[in-house]
Amino acid sequence: MNRRLLSILTFSVIVALTVSVFMSAQSAYGASGTSTIEVPSLVLNITAGSSISTNYTVKLTSGTTWGTNIAYKSSSGISASFSVATGDPTYSGVMTVKVSSSVATGSYTLSLYATGDDPSSNTNLTVNVAAPAVAKGTSTIELSSSSLDVTAGTSATTDYVVSLSSGTAGQTSISYESHSGISATFSVPSGVPNFNGTMTVSVASSVAAGSYTLSLNATGSDPAGQTNLTVKVAAPAVTKEVILHSEKTIQVDAKSSNSYSVSVTSPGSYNLTVLIAPGTYAKINNTMESVYNFTLATFNENSSFPSPSSNFTVQFFFVFEVNHLVTGHIMFVNSSGDAVPVMTEINSPSNWTSYTFLGGGLINNGSAYNYANGTYAFANTWTFNSTSKELVNDQFVSPVPWVFLEQAGHKLTPSTNYGSSTTIYLVISVIVVVAIIGVVLGTRFSKNKDKK
To answer: Where does a domain end: 96, 130, 164?
Structure first.
């Protein structure tokens, strides 16, 4: 074996092992499972020039749940959109199928499928397209109120009137579009304008607190443009037991030049700290109090304290108190009466956040506390300080309760079906050893040749 042959052999081994490492690394993060797409009905009846909505669920059927996208294939003029187009199975959403007015009457196939780490085979829907009704006129939809307050998990009603605005009255139907989890039913769903009825709006318990739009329209002989209803969803009232974990009280004197700091431990052994700047008064019943007691307290959540949505996991409950009062009617202010937030810090994971929790009251029942009839009001904004490794909030201006939550997220886990990081490191080590042996053998061969 000459020196050239030995070098070629060594180089070939290195290339082969490098390719093996690359392929192992690529395989380690490939598709991890399969999924299926389910819909309530495989048949959709749509009038050309209109749309229809239906629910869908992407379910994991094998392997490990991971990022998956939902997509579709269909004939020209038939399109679909998804309220939740991507996620980790199992997840659900609402699909809106639109049919162009140019699509001829007939039956068509719309194929749903999932791509990504948990792909699926096709779920085929039959789309029956009907010719649009011949419009005789137009109508308008009027509501007794432009907004409706509904608590999640309940329903509320409002009246409506479908009135003829032009042309000749003919058979007309009322329909709606809205956010997933918000539905509507009509006491009189169709008729010849003018007709009226009562609409019942139902909100699922899974819908987060906030404002949503429900759009009404009329189809048929006397179509109408959209009439929008604002649905204001409130979180359901909560009465839960919470157990005091730790608390600390300090006395604040706003007239001194001192800043104040109070710290307690939270469930999970995180440090929760509040910093009060010099000149921070407590405005109580429109009176500026310069000297007051400030309390920081944390509580263990108990009896599965509810989360504002499925995207969060409750960690613990905490409050500020001023003179042992917990109420949004007290405010931290400066000497001019302007709101001044206190700084709040916690050395928690960066994917934590909190929600302000209002209403009801914190009641000491002897061995623990009950928080009665409170609701999630809104999410808070925290900034992660990468230097101190802390979450920081500078917006809290009243002594009220908050609930700390952990947001769900990806945790990268290599597949065990292919190469592991240990295998990759081993292969890299083999490459290095082979390379060294190649150099040593090449040097020795050269020396022996020179001696000859």
So the answer is: 130
75: domain CATH number? 2.60.40.10
Mean pLDDT confidence for 256-265: 96
Can you tell me the distance from the alpha carbon of 450 to that of 3, in angstroms, rounded to the nearest whole number?
Answer: 12
| CA dist., res. 26 & res. 155, Å (int) | 51
Beta bridge partners of 63: 33
Interval 6-10 mean pLDDT: 56
Last residue of a domain, one of 189, 206, 234: 234
Amino acid at 31: A
Say if residue 397 is in the same domain as residue 261.
Answer: yes
- Exposed, middle or buried: residue 268 (CB in 10 Å: 0-12, 13-18, 19+)? middle
- Tell me how many domains the chain contains: 4
Residue with tokens 């150099």: 439
Bridge pairing between strands 260-265 and 271-276: antiparallel
CA 171, CA 139: separation in Å to the nearest integer?
11
pLDDT digits (tens, 9 = 90+) for 37-86: 999 999 999 988 888 999 999 999 999 888 899 999 999 999 999 999 99
Crossing angle, helix 3-28 and helix 421-451, to 10 degrees?
A: 170
Q: Is the dihedral of CA 280, 286, 291, 295 positive or negative?
A: negative
Query: Cα separation of 72 and 92, whole Å?
Result: 16
What contacts 112, CB < 8 A, 6 or more positions away? 37, 39, 56, 70, 71, 72, 80, 95, 122, 123, 124, 125
| Domain hosting residue 222, numbered range | 137-234
Q: Give the CA distances from residue 98 to residues 105, 131, 138, 223, 227, in Å, rounded to whole numbers and listed in that order.
A: 14, 14, 22, 17, 19
The reported pLDDT for the residue numbered 101 is 87
Please check whether residues 375 and 432 belong to one and the same domain. no
According to the model, what pLDDT value does residue 25 have? 40
87 shares a domain with 66: yes
Query: What pLDDT was estimated at residue 205?
Result: 81
CA–CA distance, 297 with 318 (Å, rounded to integer): 6
Report yes or no on whether pTM surpasses 0.90: no
Statement to judge: residues 251 and 177 lie in one domain: no
Which of these ranges, 8-22, 36-50, 178-192, 302-316, has the smallest mean pLDDT?
A: 8-22
